[in-house]
Fold this protein.
Amino acid sequence: MPYPSDRERDRPWVMRTYAGHSSAAKSNELYRRNLAKGQTGLSVAFDLPTQTGYDPDHELARGEVGKVGVPVGHLGDMRTLFDGIPLGSANTSMTINATAMWLLALYVTVAQEQADAEGTDWHEVVARLAGTTQNDIIKEYLSRGTYVFPPGPSLRLITDMVAFTVANVPKWNPINICSYHLQEVGATPVQEVAYSMCTAIAVLDAVRDSGQLPQEEFGNVVARISFFVNAGVRFIEEMCKMRAFTELWDEICRDRYGIDDPKQRRFRYGVQVNSLGLTEAQPENNVQRIVLEMLAVSLSRKARARAIQLPAWNEALGLPRPWDQQWALRMQQVLAYETDLLEYEDIFDGSPVIQAKVDEILAGARAEIDRVQAMGGAVAAVESGYMKTQMVGSLAERRRRIEVGEEVIVGVNKFDTTEPSPLQAEGAKAIETVDPVAEREAVAAIAQWRATRDDKAVQDSLDVLRAAAKTDANLMAATLSCAKAGVTTGEWSAALREVFGEYRAPTGVSGASAIGEAGAELAKVRDWVRSTGDELGERLRVLVGKPGLDGHSNGAEQIAVRARDTGFEVVYQGIRLTADQIVSAAVQEGVHVVGLSILSGSHLEAVPAVVEGLRAAGAGDIPVVVGGIIPPDDAETLLAGGVARVFTPKDYEMTQIMAEIVRVIREAHDLPDQEGLTDQGGLTEQ
């Protein structure tokens, strides 16, 4: 969206809703309905198998198909997803990273097919395609965990996409540098700004050094770099962060890359407000949180978002319903069309208070950027674990402040008395649920797709892709050929895995600590851990596991940090584990309890697989506890199936969670509660 150059009312931002689930057909229905309600852009949520390069019938995809987004396994799915939606006039954001090249190739191919069906020149249609592929792999190593390949090859895929889109799809944003997810895993405003800029520098340096584009085109490369940011409820600080972002980006583009055109240096960003700040307790409070957070990215005209998507009030409970998403869209529309927000120049210009805060963030960000660049840049800082450790530590400190009451969360650690909520009167019906039949249908559909395609064309295109990956050729051409031949998402990724290998990012747990927590509670639990170990004759050991494809690991990491600080020996191997791998590690390490963290909605499939696996391995006496976004009815099902405890976002006191885990271990070994711990300091039975 262009910025106005006069005093007329500013144009509203692109309004999106992050959506997609179950199947391409059901998601297409949802998109059409949302567009009819006044949404002006699409934001596609892909399921975890699609994001991590697996087909629906892969072992790791079990329980994950269609849960947190739409499964797209091949060109046929992409056709269905955008059926009846002219891509030449759409504005589509795709939250896709490791497999971004593949999904863009499918999208471009569907646009070509639509043009051919209409008898128009597909080159003109592709040149009009507008939207974004998220494609920020650096933050995947630090937060969301949907990486596939090592940092070097991943950066190459991004570089090839940037070069291809600048030359062929000039209105497309080939990358969204995402500070959003950094805040979700604990980044302070300074870290959020600094690490995002370090990622942008890494990408721009890689594109410049690749030699794929002439120097005179580099301004167009810079102009297509977009950002995706987070806005928390401290909306004054967040607004200042956005002004700092705008100023620093302009400075980097001008001084580091010599970009003279102010339009090419413009900081262009979309936003989703802070999902991490949404609470399960008194979830109706999330409505005002979302509105206040939206102000952070809309109040300052010079730093105003040009695309906004808002979470729904009940996302801490589960998948929002269409009505919940409509409510979030209406919040945007009321602000844009009913208020006078868009009628004024920047209302913060000249404020010494605002400028002082902006300067503070800028100074901290510049210093942190210099620190990362001295290490060799963003990729080196990822591989060394530096950035991950910094953010795990920041989140541990934030959790400490919440637990001791220094940071107030209304309805959680203060003002927690409440009346029954009519918004939740429907119980399990207050959230959208994905029918398990969707996964079975996806598995059957991809088998049918494989059975009806030209196998030789598929294999030939994959051979070309593998061969190109071993050279420095741009991989978009080979990927487009794969898309048209009928290759599947899993096959494309598997071919590149053969050449590039896979990667496991540092967890950041070993260097982080919440040891600064004040009060006696941590000491009590530490004593209980030690004395229980003495009774059992060995130090207590906990395995923290992330089954399936859910890469949101900050909860698991914080549990691992707190468990270690209370005296447990912690076994934590990171994300993306099969049930068999978790069971094997639990048996080999001789752990006293297994803790599973699942945020993707696959708990009813992934957790029983671990419980049954332990029983089959003769280790059924090892108790299993589970944490995640788990509706009450599902929690009852898990408990009935042998899980010892279920923790959800309302269980924010992590030291109390540690105490409960010790209690679980004592119950499993028929040890009595230690005298004095069941009625003191928040360690009562939950």
